[in-house]
Amino acid sequence: MSSAALLVILSVYLALLFFVAHWAEKKAKSKWTNNPYVYSLSLAVYCSAWTYYGSIGVAANSGLNYLPTYIGPIIIIPAWMVVLRKIIRISRVNKISSIADFISLRYGNSRFLGALVSLVCLFGILPYIALQLKAIAETFHVVTKTSLSSNFLNDTTTYVAIALALFASYYGTRYVDASEKRKGIVTAVAMESLLKLFFFLLVGMYVTFFVFDGFEDIYQKASVMKDFAQKNTIGGIPQAINWFLLCVVSLFAIFLLPRQFQMSVIENNRESHVKTAVWLFPLYLLLINIFVYPIAWGGNILFEGSNVNADTYSLLIPQLMGNKTITVLVFLGGFSAAISMIVVSCIGLSTMLSNNVLIPYGFLGTLTSGSPEQNTRRIVNIRKVGIFSLIILAYFIYRVVVLDYNLVSIGLVSFVVIAQLAPSFFGAITWRRGSRRGAITGIIAGFAVCTYTLLIPYATGASHIGSSFISDGLFGIALLKPFALFGLDYLTPIPHALFWSMFANIFVFMSVSVTFRGNYRERNYAEMFVDIDKYITMHESAFIWKGTAYTSDINKVLKRFLGEERTKRAMSIFHTKYGVDNNQDLADARLIKFAENLLTGHIGTASAKILIASVVKEEKITLPEVLKILEESHENIIINKKLTETSNELKAITGELKEANEKLIRKDKQKDEFLDTVTHELRTPITAIKAASEILHDDDDVPEEIRKQFLQNIISESDRLNRLIDKILDLEKFETGKQKINAAYNNLDHTIEKALEPLQQLIRNKGISIHQVQCGITDAFYDEDRIVQVITNLISNAIKFCPEQNGNIYITVNDDDTEITTIIKDNGKGINPEDIDTIFDKFYQSNNQNIKKPVGSGLGLAISRQIIEYHGGKIWAANSKEGGANLIFTLPKS
Amino acid sequence: MKKILIVDDEPNIVMSLEYTFKKNNFEVFIARDGQEALDLLKTESPDVIILDVMMPMVDGFATIEQIKKDDRLKDCKVIFLSAKNKESDIEKGLSLGADLYMTKPFSIKKLVEQVNGLVGL
């Protein structure tokens, strides 16, 4: 394949990357970018070109030794979940934006420690980035069958490096707050993880099943090769210790590598995503390793005797078979692996470089005098330039310092360097006594040992040439042999260096921490880190600070970095959170910690502390005092939390009581009104009966005809009384839920007919015409007796409303998908608009001291409402435009 | 012959009252609610009005207010006859200028005695 063609493919691929990042930034809130799978896949940034190419090289040359790098992380994953959660919580509440911030904040927010950690990372990672560039260059030449040109303008890697530098510095610094989430980068990396896995599996299957005849075939052909058996043993106890140490260094790496910390902690926007990562990430590691062995030994078989770099077997095999497509796809997969590592590492490193080295040691002075806009621009520019120069620096290391090591060995050196952070890092969240001095001296001691046993031999290329330094030790002292320090001669260089550097590091860290007590600030942060769960909600309260500070001074500092608007918003959040008065002149410890947090994302923990410290006057506190305050504040937090809970509960209960009380008052009033109405309703027929009977009793001369009329009145009023009692009991049954509804499928036309029957006499007497259209509904579901009662009530009302002459009543039924609506309309005067909402209430007539006679008995409509509501329908009244009232009810269909 | 106006929306009660007062030599007028009564009072000025409180359209309290505004009816006696028997209702009725407030159910004999007393028979 020609260079030009491959360049075109690369450019298209990079453009796609830019597009994905751009799209994800725009959709930062969508579930496409905010899901546990994107998070888990982004963690696979762990698998760099080292995994993609280097593992095959190791498997081909030294058998199983490539495995510990993956076994380590897989073993630690269950514990990783627990520890990672803690780290995520600590980082979230403290607005931590890098591992340097994390470690330095814990040890008393030490500026020096932050810078030290940053430099260790820089030292460990830069050569590693250079190696990724080298991998890109080498594989490019393999694919195009060209060789590395000495003119850097002809080197594709130059342009790739520049493109990456642009990409990373643009998308890596979108927000001035470095603890913000970079959705674009994360999504792009997740996509690349998917692609590199896919392409790797593709070439694996191709080699295993197309080039060879399955796993069995490869194994049989490989097992006859001369060094097969020797390469594929663990190698007894010493080798097992080697294995163990390699696993350890890899499991440290999963926590400590700046790119892992960046992806797993800083870019984590939901703790629950860790749950998915816990199975998906190991699964990813397993999948990407399945075909390493077949490809490696397939390569060994195919290229036996020829001098080719085993790292590039995955490209060479398809190339040998003439399959251009797979060759290019594999190249793209490796390219993805390399660039995601480069981009994420550079973002992490540049944040450290700016927030933990450049700003606290140099730029802070300039920043304190700038305007918010200037400061934002400056900080972002520092990081942009940082990312850019890191990539370019790595490029120079790759160009100038000729790296003739394979991918794995440099990768592992990098791991050992980074592992120097392990004691202070894990100590930070588990051991309260760990102190700043312990951490600093431990890291320096470990790094020194590591330099002696690994960096110097590697940097001088001594491990290859073999020199007296290696074979005889420094000054010819055998105990100081760099690869066999103090006579420890059965470990390979990497585990050997890890062992001694960790030994020195941990020993110094612990002994110094125990011997020299840390100051109160360290102890304070130790509490907050180790017991993060206690302080998570009110962590500013756990910060101990004594002295004088003015809110206005702190505000001024904040405004310089956040601007007017955001400062105001942040302060109001603070006031709400702690229930502090807005106009408090003096700032307390909580405000100081809160302000430091606000600045931390922008300029790092150390600078934030320095800035705030410059405007406040702090008094020294002794350690015992700190411990006492911590204990108190912890108790206070618990008490406060309980108080808040109790007060919230009380508030809720008060609210409920108030509501219940109002309901009772309403009910009570309703009950009074009910009794009022009922007694009135009962008295009326009794009055009529009494009057008529009194006349009949006292007056013997009543004419026969009138006598009969009076008796008739007595009978009908007695009936009325009886009906009234029935209604009251009915209503009571509905109210107390004792009423049963016997619903069945009914013919609505029949039901209306039944309802009209007893009213026919009255209708004829008043000369009213009933207009009814048969609706033809035969499958309405209701209790027929009850609905007859409702329709009778409504029609009786309509009859009462009708004018003396030409009374008309219209009965209409509308049938739609969900309900049946029945409308009973008259041509009377209509209902008083004031009463329209209340006529179905039980006792509506006494509202507003209204003493007008109600429509009907007042109870009939109330009962109708109960019946309809029991059926799940609605009932209401409305006046129609042309005059007259509509009484409407609905019955639901299901 | 004394004139009496009965204002009530309950036809059976009205019937008993009408029979009784006719028998006691009253000229009886009937209205089924306040509005009908006020219409009738434009042309007639009875000696006694028996007034129910709870009626459709215009209630008893509103009716007496109108009656009391009419100078022509100042000698007209008003008796409330109502099932509303709370003290507050009675007080309200009397304060509006009624001569008597009787609660339902009532004794016809007593009502006739009261009416006779009021008109000086």
From TrEMBL, chain A:
<keyword id="KW-0175">Coiled coil</keyword>
<dbReference type="InterPro" id="IPR001734">
    <property type="entry name" value="Na/solute_symporter"/>
</dbReference>
<dbReference type="GO" id="GO:0016020">
    <property type="term" value="C:membrane"/>
</dbReference>
<feature type="transmembrane region" description="Helical">
    <location>
        <begin position="65"/>
        <end position="84"/>
    </location>
</feature>
<dbReference type="InterPro" id="IPR005467">
    <property type="entry name" value="His_kinase_dom"/>
</dbReference>
<feature type="transmembrane region" description="Helical">
    <location>
        <begin position="6"/>
        <end position="24"/>
    </location>
</feature>
<protein>
    <recommendedName>
        <fullName>histidine kinase</fullName>
        <ecNumber>2.7.13.3</ecNumber>
    </recommendedName>
</protein>
<feature type="transmembrane region" description="Helical">
    <location>
        <begin position="277"/>
        <end position="296"/>
    </location>
</feature>
<dbReference type="GO" id="GO:0000155">
    <property type="term" value="F:phosphorelay sensor kinase activity"/>
</dbReference>
<keyword id="KW-0902">Two-component regulatory system</keyword>
<feature type="transmembrane region" description="Helical">
    <location>
        <begin position="438"/>
        <end position="459"/>
    </location>
</feature>
<keyword id="KW-0808">Transferase</keyword>
<dbReference type="InterPro" id="IPR036890">
    <property type="entry name" value="HATPase_C_sf"/>
</dbReference>
<feature type="domain" description="Histidine kinase">
    <location>
        <begin position="677"/>
        <end position="894"/>
    </location>
</feature>
<keyword id="KW-1133">Transmembrane helix</keyword>
<dbReference type="InterPro" id="IPR018212">
    <property type="entry name" value="Na/solute_symporter_CS"/>
</dbReference>
<feature type="transmembrane region" description="Helical">
    <location>
        <begin position="385"/>
        <end position="401"/>
    </location>
</feature>
<keyword id="KW-0418">Kinase</keyword>
<feature type="transmembrane region" description="Helical">
    <location>
        <begin position="407"/>
        <end position="431"/>
    </location>
</feature>
<comment type="similarity">
    <text>Belongs to the sodium:solute symporter (SSF) (TC 2.A.21) family.</text>
</comment>
<feature type="transmembrane region" description="Helical">
    <location>
        <begin position="326"/>
        <end position="349"/>
    </location>
</feature>
<dbReference type="InterPro" id="IPR050736">
    <property type="entry name" value="Sensor_HK_Regulatory"/>
</dbReference>
TrEMBL record, chain B:
<dbReference type="GO" id="GO:0000160">
    <property type="term" value="P:phosphorelay signal transduction system"/>
</dbReference>
<dbReference type="Pfam" id="PF00072">
    <property type="entry name" value="Response_reg"/>
</dbReference>
<dbReference type="InterPro" id="IPR050595">
    <property type="entry name" value="Bact_response_regulator"/>
</dbReference>
<dbReference type="InterPro" id="IPR011006">
    <property type="entry name" value="CheY-like_superfamily"/>
</dbReference>
<feature type="modified residue" description="4-aspartylphosphate">
    <location>
        <position position="52"/>
    </location>
</feature>
<protein>
    <submittedName>
        <fullName>Transcriptional regulator</fullName>
    </submittedName>
</protein>
<dbReference type="InterPro" id="IPR001789">
    <property type="entry name" value="Sig_transdc_resp-reg_receiver"/>
</dbReference>
<keyword id="KW-0597">Phosphoprotein</keyword>
<keyword id="KW-0902">Two-component regulatory system</keyword>
<dbReference type="GO" id="GO:0003677">
    <property type="term" value="F:DNA binding"/>
</dbReference>
<keyword id="KW-0805">Transcription regulation</keyword>
<keyword id="KW-0238">DNA-binding</keyword>
<keyword id="KW-0804">Transcription</keyword>
<feature type="domain" description="Response regulatory">
    <location>
        <begin position="3"/>
        <end position="119"/>
    </location>
</feature>
